[in-house]
Amino acid sequence: DLLEGIVRVYLDGAREPVIEGPMKDLMGSETLVPYPLAASVPEKNEARKRGYNLFLPVPFAKSCKITFEGDSIDELNLGADNTRVGKFYYNIEYRKYPAGTSVRTLDKNALKANSGAIEAACRMLAEKPSEGAEGCLPLNCVLKPGRSRTFRLGGEKAIRTFSLDIQAEDMAKALRSLVIEISFDGHRTVSVPAGDFFGTGKVMRKFSTRMASSDGQNMEAYWTMPFRRSCKLTLRNTSDADISIVSGELRYGSWNWDGESMHFCANWAEETYAVGPSEGQYDLDFLSVEGRGTYVGTVFSITNGAKKWWGEGDEKIYVDGESFPSHFGTGSEDYVGYAWSSGTPFEHPFIAQPCGEGAGRPGFVSNVRWRFLDAIPFRKSLDFDMELLQVSVPGTITYGRVNFWYMTPKK
């Protein structure tokens, strides 16, 4: 059984591994570290149809080698039947520091000695960010078709929590037609439909993650959004029907703006693509920005119009003008942390599938991945492409996505 295969992590050329154990224990239970640093999802699926995730940072000064040992692996027969021969897909992400950076290599004693701090960190990561809010700006309003409402904050502050409770006759239309626009210090950095911004897409579902959640009616986001002089939030109704914000607010607090401060950014795009035997392979431009910043997450909103899994295709992330991507994945569901084309909803502080109805059939899918332990910093530029690959069954896929990042303001 592949789940019983042994994972070993060797650091700085050591002969003995600093981490060793069955994959399902190290990455899907609290054997090594507590939840949410280790978790398998969706928990409702049988063990072999889950994704296994370990978010524990493992520092090393010189080198890292990770091995897997399993009785059923057939490395000489790559085309063998999956049902008879062990086969699995994996992503190992790492960050390299400039030469001369002092890094203390992880050892077993450090894991034991810091177990209390690790447990405390896990408790904190499993909760919403602490607010530090000192004030509240209500957002309640009724928006007629084609109308908008603008709300303003002044001074040196940071938004800590943003919430909306929307009512409309057609909620699917309202979640997509209510557009959130935010400008910080005179620069508009956010323009995203409300449902996509909060991670639920155009189908309202209950879910909870560290950076966004919904109870099925009220939606909340917990991003820290700092500004030096001003913030302008506009709620714009682009539909032909009334949309009511029956409850909504910006909770904000103080902020010490300095040379390291960045503005919060989010973009949105959606296109419809023909898929099937004659066509169905595309590289989608998720994000392309120049400057200094940090990429922190993505929301997928997929309307699948074919009786086939929508999510084949690899992510490719180019940092600071790389000719070949330093981040090259193995598939959309692997990027989000689950597996085997599963349509089962799940939630976790870092990853979630609020809705999976269109996983292998016509319907809607929403996926979430937040990157705060594994955020991707860039100094000059970041380009993120996601492949769409479905060349088996004819139909269409409407592919929406929101990307979130922080950016140093241009002078």
Q: What this model shows, in words?
A:
The protein is mainly beta and 411 residues long. 9% of the residues lie in helices and 43% in strands. The protein is built from six helices and 28 strands. It has helices at residues 23-28, 108-113, 115-125, 171-177, 194-197, 332-336, and strands at 6-11, 19-22, 38-41, 51-54, 64-69, 135-138, 141-143, 148-154, 157-167, 178-184, 187-193, 207-208, 212-214, 218-221, 225-227, 230-237, 243-254, 263-275, 281-290, 293-304, 315-319, 327-328, 346-347, 351-355, 363-370, 376-378, 381-389, 395-407. Strands 6, 7, 9, 12, 13, 14, 15 and 17 form an eight-stranded antiparallel β-sheet that branches. Strands 18, 20, 23, 24, 25, 26 and 28 form a seven-stranded antiparallel β-sheet that branches. The protein is globular. It starts with 5 loop residues before the first strand and ends with a strand. The mean pLDDT is 94.
Q: Topology, please?
A:
Blueprint lengths: L5 E6 L7 E4 H6 L9 E4 L9 E4 L9 E6 L38 H6 L1 H11 L9 E4 L2 E3 L4 E7 L2 E11 L3 H7 E7 L2 E7 H4 L9 E2 L3 E3 L3 E4 L3 E3 L2 E8 L5 E12 L8 E13 L5 E10 L2 E12 L10 E5 L7 E2 L3 H5 L9 E2 L3 E5 L7 E8 L5 E3 L2 E9 L5 E13 L4
